[in-house]
Specification:
alpha+beta, 23 helices, 23 strands, 17% strand
Length: 823
């Protein structure tokens, strides 16, 4: 058996080396398909697909609260309270363990004499590492008693990267004191290498017990005892033999029992078990459609590549018929001959796979250079790891099978030895139908990719041109006063003094503040409200919309238009009646055909559930993603709804960057210990959060469209050239009896045009069917209009005719006498 396989490999290699042109085109075609799929899988993996880096990650499921709120955004609070988590942990029998955690942001310094850094970590339940079945790289993890008494055990487990980067992988770090907030924590362990936390894009720097969070700056009093304070993300590991459906049923029963026991806080709240993949999709929000669109386009490139290779193999079949017929005549069975042909395809796939992995690596390196603007350490990692390489190998193997099975089957069918050996090419007009169909499919898929690329580019350009706010001559600076142990009054005083100092700096035209910047990927501030006069769906008590706290200078500084009513004023303070501004999308959704001015919204997630009166309506802008549809947004007055985190927005008469130094001096004069969570120009912020992401997406989509176009050109050229070679004698006879070269040229071109027309027709149908992916990425402008079709179709027709012109021109120059003697 091994000897037979070795013979097939040697013979296949000889045949490929004898046809270097064919081999080169086939290998490059497969490489493009493998490279596109490997790279796009790596990107989708970094955005959505990558599982937790824990043993048997698929056993770890998410447990979300099913909220009675209606959401006008992709963000819904599905978190659990600590008492609900404890009840679930103690009652559930479907899991080997249930863990809880939430993200914390605090100052971090490894020595008292060094300035603190702002680092993100996770506050976790005591069983966190045990449930995930993770063993520390150094030291130990948490003991059960270290998560029982609030504020007692100040211990920390460092992330492996923190240990390596900040402590130089020093094994003596165990027992060392580090400063977090104003508390000294004792290092007890180092998390295992490769485990970066529970969030794909938020790598943790450290892990601390949930109980100790009550002593951190900004902690809410009695947070772990309040059943109405839902701040915990919950994961659980399924017991062996327990299905996710069984776990859902038990969890739902526990939720209903809690609802009966605690009706004031748990009315209409349930619990839902989500699979590992569903949990990742929920976390990534709007990133998922873009990732799956890229995967779909990469699959289309693979199909075009396979069609190309299959067409090449089928075009060689007539030339190899004498060889195949002879082998079958001397005892080679059809299975043996077919295996030889498949072996040759496997060799092509190996060469294409190796080259494709190199192409995929280059694309991954390109994506690594995409800037990410984040103050809290958001990081997207794109790696050509073992999973991506495995995908590449599977794609290469699939391309070998897809491209070789039909040609191999057809090459071994109905061969008559005598006839085949007498004629160099057997009559087989029907054999062209297979290649014709492949070329039509290539053109159709290419049209779909090019249409997607052009539509995406046009949609992105339209969205980037109208974000709804200024993107030039603005400087941003973020602050977290709670990390400096400020209370609400001290925070308000700091911001007031800061704005006064900054306004006095030469070159400053305006100053504003907000708790959430548009397009900021670090923070979201959902608000649970009940709009006055709006009929909520039955069983719901509130809706969830995104919000921010702003001051009187925010709208003017960012250039957001006020359409009705008034702006936030200096008189809107804590002791005055609460006010709110809504954007146009929210006004039209909840008060259609009415003026929202004077309407009220009840703030369901504020103490006492107070009312706020709508006093103004602003123009819509982009809030989460540059391609989003109009999204409801509500603004609250900063001094009435004071929080800690805010961003200073400074308008400049000239260069915004020139204001950085005097603003830093002003901050240092007020409080030299105040940490700044990022200072940058609006141009840099907008480029990192909007322009770079969209331009990268359009370039990649366009690149895959061009790959498909090149493959389609090769496929059509090869088919027409093959058809001309088969018709050499016929063309010679026609020209000998008087046919003009122009008539021959038109005849050959007509064949290419007809194939292109069929492909375009099927491609348009495919575009209509697949338009949902584009609308998912750009709901507001993601439409394929007549202009796009006209541009893409005309370009494709011209290119396809040019691909047919070269073999057609060669046919028109055939010498009749030489053609008649050739056969």
């Amino acid at each position: 058996m091994i000897e037979t396989i070795w013979q097939d490999l040697r013979h296949g290699a000889r045949m490929l080396f004898k046809n270097p042109g064919f081999t080169f085109v086939a290998v490059v075609s497969i490489a493009l398909g493998v490279g596109a799929n490997t790279a796009m899988f790596s990107v989708a993996d970094g955005l959505v697909l990558r599982p937790l880096q824990v043993p048997r990650a698929n056993e770890v499921v998410g447990i979300n609260a099913t909220t009675p709120r209606v959401s006008d955004t992709f963000i819904v609070n599905t978190l659990l309270s600590h008492p609900d988590y404890v009840d679930l942990r103690d009652r559930a029998t479907s899991f080997t363990g249930v863990l809880a955690y939430h993200v914390v942001l605090t100052s971090f310094s490894d020595r008292r004499d060094q300035p603190a850094q702002t680092k993100l970590g996770f506050a976790v339940s005591g069983n966190f590492f045990d449930v995930l079945q993770l063993r520390p790289a150094l030291g130990r993890t948490f003991l059960a008693e270290e998560d029982r008494v609030a504020g007692r055990d100040a211990v920390v487990v460092l992330a492996y990267d923190t240990w390596a980067d900040q402590f130089g992988s020093d094994p003596g770090v165990i027992g060392r004191q580090i400063r977090m907030g104003d508390t000294d924590f004792t290092v007890i362990g180092v998390a295992p290498q490769g485990f970066t936390g529970m969030r794909l894009a938020l790598p943790a720097a450290y892990y601390i017990p949930l109980a100790i969070t009550s002593s951190l700056p900004g902690a809410l009093p009695n947070a772990l005892e309040r059943r109405d304070l839902r701040v915990l993300e919950v994961r659980a590991r399924l017991k062996p033999g327990v299905s996710i459906e069984q776990a859902r049923e038990e969890t739902a029963l526990i939720a209903r029992a809690l609802e009966r026991t605690h009706p004031d806080t748990n009315r209409n709240y349930g619990m839902l078990v989500r699979s590992a993949m569903q949990t990742r999709l929920d976390e990534r929000g709007p990133s998922a459609p873009g990732a799956f669109m890229l995967l779909t386009l990469a699959l289309v490139v693979l199909l075009v590549a396979c069609a190309n290779v299959a067409g090449l193999l089928m075009s060689r079949a007539p030339e190899r018929q004498p060889e195949i017929a002879l082998r079958m005549a001397i005892g080679g069975g059809r299975g043996r001959v077919a295996r030889q042909l498949v072996t040759e395809s496997v060799l092509l796939a190996v060469g294409g796979g190796v080259l494709g992995l190199a192409i995929g690596y280059g694309v991954v390196v390109f994506f690594r250079g995409m800037p990410i603007v984040s103050d809290i350490g958001v990081r997207l990692t794109f790696d050509l790891d073992r999973r991506a390489i495995l995908v590449g190998l599977v794609v290469a193997a699939a391309s070998a099978l897809l491209s070789s099975l039909v040609p191999a089957w057809r090459a071994t069918q109905r061969l008559d030895l005598a006839t085949t050996l007498r004629t160099s090419t057997a009559d087989g007009r029907h054999r062209l139908w297979g290649r014709n169909g492949l070329v039509v499919g290539q053109v159709a898929l290419t049209l779909m990719m090019l249409t997607a690329a052009v539509s995406l580019s046009r949609a992105a350009a339209a969205e980037l041109s109208q974000p709804g706010f200024r993107t030039e001559r603005i400087l941003l600076a973020g602050f977290e006063p709670m990390l400096a142990r400020y209370n609400v009054q001290q925070t308000d005083a700091f911001y007031t003094r800061l704005k006064e100092r900054v306004r006095a700096i030469p070159g400053v035209t305006s100053v504003g503040m907000t708790s959430v910047m548009p397009l900021n990927q670090d923070y979201r501030d959902p608000a649970a409200i009940a709009p006055e006069g709006f009929q909520l769906p039955r069983g719901t008590v509130s809706i969830t919309v995104l919000s921010s706290r702003i001051d009187e200078g925010y709208l003017d500084t960012l250039g957001i238009r006020l359409l009705q009513g008034r702006n936030v004023g200096a008189a809107d303070v804590a002791t005055s009646p609460r006010i709110a501004l809504v954007n146009q999308a929210m006004a039209m959704r909840y008060w259609p055909g009415q003026s929202p001015i004077g309407k009220r919204v009840r703030l369901m997630d504020r103490d006492g559930q107070p009312w706020a009166e709508v006093v103004g309506v602003t123009a819509d802008s982009k809030y989460n993603w540059i391609g989003e549809a109009p999204t409801s947004w509500i603004y609250f007055a900063q001094r009435q709804d004071q929080g800690f985190r805010s961003t200073l927005i400074v308008g400049a008469a000239g260069s915004a960057a020139s204001l950085a130094a005097p603003i830093r001096d002003s901050i240092r004069d007020i409080d030299p210990n105040m940490p700044i969570a990022g200072m940058r120009t609006m141009e840099d912020f907008y480029y990192g959060n909007a322009t770079a992401v969209v331009s990268t997406l359009t370039r990649v989509t366009g690149g895959m469209g061009l790959m498909g176009l090149m493959l389609a050109i090769v496929g059509l050229y090869g088919l027409v050239a093959y058809a001309v070679a088969r018709r050499t004698r016929e063309i010679g006879i026609r020209m000998a009896i008087g046919a003009k070269p122009s008539i021959v040229l038109q005849s050959v071109l007509r064949q290419g045009f007809v194939l292109a027309a069929w492909g375009i027709g099927f491609g348009v149908i495919g575009c209509i069917a697949a338009g949902g992916l584009l609308r998912a990425a750009f709901p507001n402008t993601g439409r394929i209009d007549a202009t796009t079709y006209a541009l893409v179709v005309s370009t494709l027709v011209i290119v396809m005719l040019l691909a047919s012109y070269v073999p057609a021109r060669r046919a028109a120059r055939i010498d009749p006498l030489r053609a008649l003697r050739a056969d």
